[in-house]
Amino acid sequence: MRRIEHIGIAVKDLEAANKTYKAVLGAEHYKTETVESEGVSTSFFKIGESKIELLAATRADSPVAKFIEKRGEGIHHMAFYVDDIKAEIERLKGEGFRLLNEQPKPGADNKIVAFMHPKDANGVLVELCQEK
User: Fold this and answer.
1) Which domains does the chain have, with CATH numbers?
2) Where is the VOC domain (predicted)?
3) How far apart are CA 95 and CA 10, in angstroms?
């Protein structure tokens, strides 16, 4: 893993959260995107080499909607940039970690992604990210 790629924050209202984070960070978000397969709309802010990704559910059965229902708004996941996501998946499996995705899938911000089970990382949902 090369660096923290982004921190994902689950929010109820993307427009309101954009205003909040614009004020906090002193900068506008640079990109919004909907990921239909995950049932989310996203908004990205750049902070140095890292990013903040705001995630709002677009349907009630999405993972983010379920997260907010169970835990409320807040940090949803920590994403790490990797050079070879397939090799990293195999390495983590070899270390005994459970992956929620055996194969990478399309994600936001021109990435392919895979997630590690939060129970194996002290309750933190870990995302692996690689450029498409």
Assistant:
1) 3-131 (3.10.180.10)
2) 3-131
3) 29
